[in-house]
């Protein structure tokens, strides 16, 4: 049995606000379920099977359907519990509380088991489908205990002008002088640009973005050794302070024979790009494998050109490799709401010499109401919607277009599950589903599902 874990005396809440509970099962948002006098309590920093002492969040005497609380002492630890590799992100009672890594107390294999159970449960409860969802790790994350993966970070400036993170449940801003979740290259850039030295205006928002891989560099920015040396950005309240606004990202996608092909992207320093250093490679290869599998069935059924839709397409992460699939007979319609991202997508396509894409700016549902005839019958639809999901109207439009296959990339299991229920009701079924652990030490997970009719 692992050794019980107790907080420091100074951090321990009074006995009047604490309860000893047995943790029952996983819940959502990185929490677990316990009960106090029949009332559900969602507990942070717990694991199923553990006997723990928890402090209820204030006000703790409210008459809600459920309460929330946090572990203050671990009496009988789970085998999956580990000492937090980043203590500042751990429980308040142990000197943590800044957030950003709500599974920091769980072993990396334990995190993947948790995420698998969570996605499978959401698919069953909200999607009404019974599937087991494997969670696949990214090479290198186990060895680093889930640290060193973020290529983008955001912080707030404290009253003394230092980058900080807010301690949960308080107005206290905790100054930081490194970001353990960030890549070595990002921390090197922050050091080089004196981000940790402070001197910013109180309350300002700091964003640091450093693409990976670094084009052969070892993570040391500055100098003239390579064109990639200045390929980073430090933004303060959205204004560029150092580096460049237009960042260069490189993604390697294997073709059907397993041969690698590199795609180059210009992305906005303040815009969206997958944060994990390997996420663009992992997701692009997964999506392209599923699209090729689907097209293998489609091509056998007709001799016309292939039509692909790429919805919520961003700067073209999937658009470029999709357009490269049998480019002489493939047409791609991409739709994205962010104007800067679409502008960059046009640049990326032009650089790659791909003229078979109609890249449009606008709300996805509204744009799909008027689709040119030669794009109106997609063979495969790829979509990577925001956290809220595609929702019913877009799912209906995909079904009405007669798409035989849909590859859905989801950052929120609940939204995927709700859209699954809609798609199943429209005649689709899940042919394949898997999740990728591209947010280690957090409850977040990216799921990719293939739906066919």
TrEMBL record:
GO molecular function, one term: rRNA (uridine-C5-)-methyltransferase activity
CDD domains, alphabetized: AdoMet_MTases
Limits of the TRAM domain: 12-73
A GO biological-process term: rRNA base methylation
Stated family: Belongs to the class I-like SAM-binding methyltransferase superfamily. RNA M5U methyltransferase family.
The UniProt record lists the keyword Transmembrane: no
Alphabetized UniProt keyword annotations: Methyltransferase, S-adenosyl-L-methionine, Transferase
Source organism: Bifidobacterium simiarum
Binding site for S-adenosyl-L-methionine: 274, 312, 336, 384
Pfam families with a match to the protein in the record: TRAM (PF01938), tRNA_U5-meth_tr (PF05958)
Active site: 411 (nucleophile), 411
Protein name (record): RNA methyltransferase
Gene3D superfamilies: 2.40.50.1070, Nucleic acid-binding proteins, Vaccinia Virus protein VP39
Highest taxon in the source lineage: Bacteria
């Amino acid at each position: 049995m692992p050794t019980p874990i107790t907080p420091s005396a100074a951090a321990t809440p009074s006995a009047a606000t604490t309860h000893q509970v047995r943790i029952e099962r996983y819940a959502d948002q990185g929490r677990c379920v316990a009960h106090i006098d029949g009332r559900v309590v969602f507990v942070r920093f717990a694991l199923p099977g553990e006997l723990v002492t928890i402090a209820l969040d204030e006000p703790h005497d409210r008459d809600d359907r459920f309460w929330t609380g946090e572990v203050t002492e671990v009496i009988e630890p789970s085998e999956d519990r580990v000492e937090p590799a980043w203590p500042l992100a751990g429980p308040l009672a142990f000197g943590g509380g800044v957030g950003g890594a709500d599974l920091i107390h769980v072993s990396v294999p334990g995190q993947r088991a948790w995420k698998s159970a969570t996605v499978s449960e959401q698919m069953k409860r909200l999607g009404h489908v019974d599937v087991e969802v494997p969670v696949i790790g990214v090479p290198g994350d186990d060895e680093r205990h889930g640290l060193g993966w973020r290529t983008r970070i955001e912080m707030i400036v404290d009253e003394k002008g230092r980058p900080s993170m807010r301690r949960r449940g308080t107005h206290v801003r905790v100054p930081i002088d490194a970001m353990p979740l960030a890549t070595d290259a990002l921390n090197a850039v922050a050091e080089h640009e004196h981000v940790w030295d402070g001197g910013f205006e109180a309350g300002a928002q700091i964003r640091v973005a450093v693409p990976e891989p670094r084009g052969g560099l070892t993570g040391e920015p500055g100098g003239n050794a390579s064109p990639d040396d200045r390929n980073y950005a430090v933004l303060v309240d959205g204004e560029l302070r150092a580096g460049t606004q237009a960042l260069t990202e490189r993604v390697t996608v294997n073709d059907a024979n397993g041969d690698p092909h590199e795609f180059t992207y210009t992305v906005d320093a303040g815009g969206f790009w997958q944060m994990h250093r390997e996420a663009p490679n992992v997701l692009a290869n997964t999506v392209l494998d599923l699209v090729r599998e689907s097209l293998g069935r489609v091509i056998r059924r007709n001799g016309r050109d292939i039509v692909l839709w790429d919805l919520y397409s961003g700067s073209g992460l999937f658009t470029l490799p999709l357009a490269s699939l049998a480019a002489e007979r493939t047409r791609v319609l991409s739709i994205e709401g962010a104007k800067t991202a679409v502008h960059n997508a046009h640049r990326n396509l032009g650089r790659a010499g791909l003229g078979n894409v109609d890249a449009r700016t606008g709300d996805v549902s509204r744009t799909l109401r008027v689709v040119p005839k030669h794009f109106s019958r997609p063979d495969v639809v790829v979509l990577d919607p925001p956290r809220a999901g595609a929702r019913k109207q877009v799912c209906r439009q995909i079904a009405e277009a007669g798409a035989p296959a849909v590859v859905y990339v989801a950052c929120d299991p609940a939204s995927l599950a709700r859209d699954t229920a809609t798609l199943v009701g429209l005649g689709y079924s899940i042919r394949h589903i898997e999740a990728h652990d591209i947010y280690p030490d957090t409850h977040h997970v990216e799921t990719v599902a293939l739906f066919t009719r």
